[in-house]
Design goal:
two-stranded antiparallel ribbon, alpha/beta, four-stranded parallel β-sheet, globular, 14% strand, Rossmann fold, binds zinc ion
Length: 314
């Protein structure tokens, strides 16, 4: 009984905190009355839903670019957005570790809730000790399969515009395959023996397979995993053995651990953070080698990562 009262008090305090900071979506979650209302969890999924939905869909993304999806706790605002949405998309494979159960429950009750990675053929999913590796977007070609799930979900929510969703999906798929070609060629600029990436957590296995990099993270496949002293020492030895020039922090993970490892191993830490589990800030335009891209998009995220790693290791 005592605990229940305490919990009610805590919830009340939280909701006061919410209203008093003038939360961005507290009054009106949705801006438009005539568009399909789609909620997406991670920034990569939200970007895809925006591209495929076009003008016919309003997208509310739950996680911002600094959010780590593994440890993300759903807020009251998120629940309100999900409850009022026509369709909900999440990444799946337990990327959204603390949200997946409730999203699965909604889907099993017949709500239009889709894990975009459900469309990826099983043989492409990397199996890890702790389960599946969720960081599938590291390979743009594997990520193309998730287009199918977004087209399916949007079409279920708005059958009248299904042909448009399909057409945009096809165009986006072609762009993603083009991106893979570009990244594969760019990766070749790093001599083969130097294609080794050390990062904050194990988020780059698919990226490494796609572009020929050996990868090692300080923490496991979830940034919620704590890196032990043994793991840190092993990583220091690995860095020394491979004579690495540089290792890489990530934008959605605290960089204290990776900096300590770099210090111990006597190696440089990239000043530029990689985007592991979230895109950059929308509208943050990069210009490099005569081309420009928005780091707040999935395509910009991959280009940023490839350019950062290639410039750091070559
Ligand atoms: Zn991760």
């Amino acid at each position: 009984m005592k605990l229940t009262k305490l919990m009610i008090a805590a919830v009340a305090a939280l909701s006061v905190a919410f209203t008093s900071c003038g939360g961005k979506k507290s009054t009106t979650i949705w801006q438009s009355d005539d568009k399909v209302r789609a909620v997406a969890t991670s920034t990569m999924v939200a970007d895809m839903v925006k591209v495929i939905g076009g003008d016919q869909v309003e997208v509310t993304g739950l996680m911002d670019p600094t959010v780590d999806p593994h440890g993300y706790d759903q807020t009251f605002e998120d629940t309100a957005a999900i409850n009022s949405a026509d369709v909900v998309f999440y990444s799946g494979l337990h990327l959204e570790g603390r949200m997946q159960d409730s999203l699965e429950k909604r889907a099993s009750k017949g709500e239009k809730v889709y894990a975009v990675t459900d469309a990826i053929p099983h043989e492409y999913i990397i199996q890890e000790e702790g389960g599946h590796d969720p960081h599938v977007w590291g390979d743009p070609e594997i990520w193309t399969y998730t287009v199918n799930e977004v087209v399916k979900g949007l079409s279920a929510a708005d059958a009248a515009n299904a042909a448009d969703f399909k057409a945009r999906g096809e165009a986006y798929r072609a762009e993603l395959l083009e991106l893979k070609k570009w990244a594969t060629a760019r990766a070749q600029e790093v001599p083969e023996g130097q294609r080794v990436m050390v990062t904050s957590h194990d988020a780059f296995a698919y990226f490494g397979n796609a572009f020929g990099f050996k990868v090692k993270g300080l923490q496991g496949i979830s940034s919620d995993d704590q890196a032990g002293l043994g793991a840190a020492n092993q990583l220091v030895s690995f860095i020394k053995e491979n004579k690495l020039k540089m290792i890489f922090p990530e934008s959605s993970v605290n960089d204290k651990g990776i900096k300590a490892v770099a210090n111990e191993a006597g190696v440089a830490v990239s000043e530029v953070h990689l985007f592991s589990d979230a895109c950059g800030t929308p509208g943050d335009i990069a210009e490099i080698n005569g081309e420009s891209y928005d780091k707040g998009t999935y395509i910009g995220m991959i280009k940023h990562n490839v350019n950062t790693v290639v410039e750091g290791l070559k």
